[in-house]
Design a protein that fits this description.
The chain has 235 residues and is mainly beta. It folds into 2 domains: 138 residues, Immunoglobulin-like (Sandwich), CATH 2.60.40; 77 residues, Immunoglobulin-like, CATH 2.60.40. Helix content is 3%, strand content 47%. The protein is built from 1 helix and 17 strands. The protein is elongated and about 65 Å long.
């Protein structure tokens, strides 16, 4: 997805590039030197993934922190607490089912030999349904309405469109329940021979949570509802 692929997003881009990253042991890093990048993303099945990356040097750094020396990460959704499991070097996840609007999430970084950071929390945005756009519309000649409901929450929305025949497009929008991709705004990869192809539409509703001040000041806690669909697009 695109902005989690933006919001989740610097985080996910870093995750994609772990092959050329470096790692350090948490035993060698003070808590205030660790940037915690925390994203909670729920999908239409009411399952949420808590995704945490620990880095040294800020969100764009390729130096990841692996847990050692008794340091642990755990996440809580409502009244359910789970340990975060390592899915790669410096990247940790846990999944929770049955989440809904305003489910409270928290993440705790417990350390026996340095300052713990347990005051990380946020409430999940409300779920929404994403309507599938009409297939076969011309990118050059037709506006493309993107609609979702319910709306009007005041949370941020992000709309992203990608496909094999176009340059990807994304935009932050208001939660009005609709956004129009104007005709001619989606550029074909080959403007001399534009093609018909399937496009992916990704829409996220997001809000910020609170991060413990013990972490590096570049840390974040972001919570998202994410929906996706596909449709056929004509030149």
């Amino acid at each position: 997805m695109s902005k989690r692929n933006g919001w989740v997003l610097v985080g996910l881009l870093g995750f994609a590039g772990l092959g050329c990253s470096e790692t350090v042991s948490s035993a060698d890093i003070k808590t205030h030197g660790i940037a915690a990048l925390i994203d909670v993303t729920a999908d239409a099945s009411a399952v949420a993934t808590v995704h945490v990356e620990l880095r040294v040097g800020g969100p764009s750094s390729n130096t990841f922190v692996t847990l050692d020396n008794g340091d642990t990460l755990s996440a809580t959704a409502g009244d359910v607490t789970k340990p975060l499991q390592s899915i790669d070097r410096g990247v940790y996840e846990a999944k929770f089912s049955g989440v809904e609007a305003d489910t409270l999430f928290s993440v705790a970084f417990n350390r026996p030999n340095d300052t713990s950071a347990v005051d990380n929390s946020g409430a999940l945005p409300a779920p929404f349904d994403l309507d599938k756009p009409a297939a076969g519309k011309s990118r050059a000649d037709d506006d493309l309405p993107v609609t979702w409901s319910p709306s009007g929450t005041g949370d941020g929305m992000h709309v992203a469109i990608d496909g094999s025949c176009i340059f990807s497009s994304s935009k932050d929008v208001s939660d009005t329940g609709s956004y129009t991709v104007t005709k001619g705004s989606l550029s074909s990869l080959d403007d001399k021979k534009p093609e018909t192809c399937d496009l992916s539409l990704d829409v996220e509703r997001s809000r910020n949570g609170h991060v413990d001040i013990a972490f590096d000041s570049d840390s974040w806690f972001r919570l998202h509802q994410a929906r996706s669909t596909k449709f056929t697009s004509a030149p």
